[in-house]
Design goal:
- The structure is a single chain.
- This protein is of the alpha/beta class.
- The protein has a single domain, classed as UDP-N-acetylmuramoyl-L-alanine:D-glutamate ligase, CATH 3.40.1190.
- The chain contains nine helices and 13 strands.
- The protein has a nine-stranded mixed β-sheet with strand order 5-4-1-8-9-10-11-12-13, with helices on both faces. A four-stranded mixed β-sheet has the order 3-2-6-7.
- The longest helix has 16 residues.
- The protein is globular, with a radius of gyration of 18 Å.
- The C terminus is likely disordered.
Length: 297
């Protein structure tokens, strides 16, 4: 079957409650007040699919919806962005899958309720050129994702998403080795290295370093770096997932590594200047470089 989507993002889908405008982060025994609250669809898979769609890609989303009433923002967000939502309802009696994001001092912290499975079984993916897996835990929970994608002729990328319990599970290095592009942030990459876990995917590791930019480590090649773009930080939630979409879009277009990093950085700059992970995104197609000869296989 020929691919009908450019990218399908699979992983946990959340409803994000983003509290911003705080003078300080919460502390035990004290109450702080937010200057703003954004309620929006979230999770790495959703945000990457959203930015891919804003870049002009045909994007799909696979996962389990948060329990009502928190499913409504996800469905509305996917429809508004033109994302093909191949989602299933949460099982009856399941807690809502939500994240409270606390934004203070230019950074953020999260409190998340993560019930049930990331994906419904039996696994099924729509025809697509590329599969993006939103977090390491999803791949560890559903190891058939990569063989399923390979059988359909898809390339595969994987975000890490900080998860101490996932890092401690067996087979992490082997799971990363099965994907083409691995996209941890600097803290995640350092933690994996400290644990002695090799992060060596088939094509490249791309380390997201926030205000320090990003570095690509092609397998067998020399590191390539780009700096971050200047941006007035409103909310850094989802910036790494936005970067993923930009890098993958350029890579699938055959752009050189530096151009793929640059498009990732541009999407990250858009993300940090907006509240929530992927709310009311502008048309980003003008940021996307013309297809060129691929520097990564």
């Amino acid at each position: 079957m020929s691919a009908t989507l450019d990218l399908v993002a699979a992983g946990r889908i959340y409803c994000d409650l983003v509290f911003a405008g705080l003078d300080a982060a919460p502390a035990p025994g004290r109450e702080v007040y937010a200057g703003a609250l954004t309620i929006a669809a979230g999770g790495g898979a959703f945000i990457t699919a959203a930015y891919a769609a804003a870049l002009g890609m045909k994007a799909g989303l696979a996962g389990v919806l948060p329990a009502p009433p928190f499913d409504a923002p996800v469905q509305a967000g996917a429809a508004a962005l033109g994302i093909l939502a191949l989602v299933t309802p949460a099982p009856a009696g399941t807690d809502p899958q939500i994240t409270a994001a606390i934004v203070a001092g230019g950074d953020r912290a999260f409190v998340t309720r993560r019930p049930g499975a990331a994906l419904s079984e039996p696994l099924a993916l729509p025809p697509a050129r590329h599969l993006h897996i939103g977090e390491l835990a999803t791949l560890l929970d559903h190891p058939r994702l990569v063989p399923l994608a390979r059988a359909a002729g898809m390339s595969v990328s994987l975000d890490c998403s900080w998860d101490a319990a996932a890092f401690a599970r067996p087979g992490v290095g082997e799971a990363i080795a099965c994907v083409d592009i691995f996209l941890p942030n600097a803290e995640e990459a350092e933690r994996l290295a400290a644990l002695g876990i090799a992060a060596v995917p088939r094509v490249a590791t791309v380390v997201k370093r926030g205000a320090a930019g990003a570095r690509a480590l092609p397998r067998g090649g020399q590191p390539i770096e780009v700096g971050a773009l200047p941006a007035a930080v409103v909310d850094p939630t989802g910036a790494g997932d936005a970067f993923n979409a930009g890098f993958i879009a350029a890579w699938l277009d055959g752009a050189p590594v530096a151009a793929a990093l640059a498009l990732g950085a541009a999407c990250g700059a858009v993300a940090v200047a907006r509240p929530g992970g992927a709310t009311a995104l502008p048309d980003l197609r003008q940021l996307r470089p013309a297809p060129a000869r691929a520097a990564l296989p």
